[in-house]
Specification:
Elements: H1 7-11, H2 19-25, E1 35-41, H3 44-53, E2 61-67, E3 85-91, H4 98-118, E4 123-126, E5 130-133, E6 136-148, E7 151-161, H5 179-183, H6 189-208, H7 212-222, E8 229-234, E9 238-246, E10 251-256, E11 259-264, E12 268-273
Parallel strand pairs: 1-2
Antiparallel strand pairs: 2-3, 3-7, 4-5, 5-6, 6-7, 8-9, 8-12, 9-10, 10-11
Helix pairs in contact: 4-6, 4-7
Bound molecules: biotinyl-5-AMP (BT5).
Biotinyl-5-AMP binds near residues 44, 45, 71, 86 and 159.
Length: about 280
């Protein structure tokens, strides 16, 4: 159940996300089988981190109606008004670091697949962690991890989807959109959440099974980065080139005048697409 008061007023016509409704619609084996829903938190990634420390299980999900300190990559602010889908998943992988590098694109792919199956929209994945419709960002993904020594203790997959609010609430920009504005009516958030969780679970199982080629081919079907001019800032250099292809979910190739450059997503500071 949603905790707190005044939430209904804040929702502005969007139905609150209800735990019972999620349970009834969920088709996953383990993702979201234990769930926490709050009206407000700093960041759902923080809620998962705290719960992980208290022994929350693999697949635990935190959802919040609003976030007061939602974050993007490298500490950027993620604006999270009521009506969005702000959700984080606890994953306790059995192996190492490559998991973390793969998760942003895996999360974006799951969202794009879910949106395309539930709505009359054509969502695409934009490297490294965006979901876009007509090149306008409708969702972003943030993966974080806790390591103990060389071991990955757990990872947190945070998904932010601009669902049912007006775009002015996050500052009008032609580069962002909400599903409500694109579709012309509020969307069924419970149905979308359940579908996203199912897609994440299926893709995560492919990742665990080492089916990298399969995952890359799924990304290629829905991505919109290949062939575009891109300006990439890394920790120790910058490069301008053309996005060539994906080697894995966490490693891509950029064609520059100096030749092909492999880029690990984990080393990225920023990515800017140039208009072709
Ligand atoms: C992302 O970062 O796109 C990752 C966003 C992840 C948000 C989820 S919500 C649940 C979980 N809890 C969290 O605290 N985070 C995750 P990045 O690529 O760095 O994009 C951040 C940039 O997007 C900002 O600098 C703004 O320019 C822009 N932005 C902020 N809020 C936005 C929004 N709601 N929709 C679209 N763009 C936004």
């Amino acid at each position: 159940m949603i905790e707190g008061i005044g939430v209904q007023a804040a929702l502005k016509g969007s139905h609150p996300v209800d735990e019972l409704a999620i349970n009834q619609n969920l088709k996953t084996r383990y993702l979201g089988r234990k769930i926490s829903i709050t009206s407000e938190c700093t960041s759902t990634n923080d809620v998962v981190k705290c719960s992980a420390g208290k022994g929350a299980p693999h697949g635990f999900v935190s959802i919040s109606e609003t976030q007061s300190a939602g974050r993007g990559r490298l500490g950027r602010l993620w604006v999270s008004p009521a009506g969005g889908i702000w959700l984080s998943i606890l994953l306790r992988p059995r192996t190492h670091q490559f998991f973390l590098d793969s998760l942003p694109l895996l999360g974006a792919l799951a969202i794009a697949k879910a949106v395309n199956s539930q709505l009359r929209l054509k969502a695409r994945v934009r490297w490294p962690n965006d979901v876009v419709v007509d090149d306008r960002k409708i969702a972003g993904v943030l993966a974080e991890a806790k390591s103990t020594g060389n071991e990955l203790a757990y990872t947190i997959l945070g998904l932010g989807i601009n669902a049912n609010f007006i775009i002015d609430e996050i500052g009008a920009s032609t580069n962002v959109a909400t599903l409500q504005s694109l579709q012309g009516a509020p969307i069924d958030r419970v149905a979308l959440i359940c579908r996203v969780l199912l897609e994440v679970e299926n893709l995560y199982e492919l990742l665990c099974a080492g089916m990298v080629e399969k995952l890359v081919s799924l990304v290629r079907e829905l991505e919109c980065s290949r062939g575009r001019s891109v300006w990439v800032k890394l920790e120790n250099r910058e490069l301008l080139g053309m996005f060539d292809d994906y080697e894995t979910l966490g490693r891509v190739r950029i064609l520059t005048r100096q030749g092909t450059q492999p880029i690990d997503t984990s080393t990225l500071l920023s990515v800017e697409y140039q208009s072709n």
